[in-house]
Design a protein that fits this description.
It is globular and about 55 Å long. The longest helix is centred in the last third of the chain and has 19 residues, at 121-139. The chain contains 9 helices and no strands. By secondary structure, the chain is mostly helical.
Length: 178
């Protein structure tokens, strides 16, 4: 289905169209889920190239392309490459959408996850906390997304500070920053 959609969009919209880039991205998602990383990487890069050219470097869809390619690299254990792309996506989202946007919070969470993979626990804590704070503000403490980030934050804290009291630390931190 995705291949057919891509073929139609290439013919009707031309290759350098945002919707064609979306089709490349969607097909890359399928290849990634099948473990066909080379094909996925090629299509993610093609999608990114189109989005950078047509939408510009500071567009949320371009940030999504950086994010998706970063996830592919993270899944392959290419953590440094993933970190660089997650940072790019995060910076775009901060600038264009603002620090308090859900998509920006998701970027914080993604970057923290790659820091965990690299055993950079202090950095992971910083970004998990930023994600958690945003999700609490947007969705409330009981929302599923907030709870997932809470669990990520708690795990990072316990690795970074095994003798610490996570709940007390988090409460104090939330009270400091509002």
């Amino acid at each position: 289905m995705n291949k057919k959609s891509l073929s139609i969009r290439e013919k009707v919209l031309e290759e350098e169209h945002p919707d064609t880039a979306a089709s490349y991205n969607n097909l890359a998602d399928v290849y990634q889920s099948q473990g066909k990383y080379k094909k996925a990487e090629e299509l993610y890069k093609k999608s990114l190239q189109i989005r950078e050219k047509v939408l510009g470097e500071e567009h949320p869809d371009t940030a999504t392309s950086y994010n998706n390619l970063a996830l592919l690299y993270k899944n392959q254990g290419k953590y440094k490459e993933a970190e660089e792309l997650y940072k790019k996506a995060m910076l775009i989202k901060e600038k264009v959408l603002g620090e308090g946007h859900t998509s920006t919070a998701t970027s914080y969470n993604n970057l923290a996850g790659v820091y965990i993979s690299q055993e950079k626990y202090k950095l992971a804590l910083i970004y998990y906390y930023k994600a958690y704070k945003n999700f609490v503000s947007i969705f409330g403490a009981d929302h599923t997304k907030t709870q997932i980030v809470y669990e990520n934050l708690e795990l990072a804290y316990k690795v970074f500070n095994p003798d610490g009291n996570f709940k007390q630390w988090l409460e104090e931190k939330m009270n400091q920053t509002g």
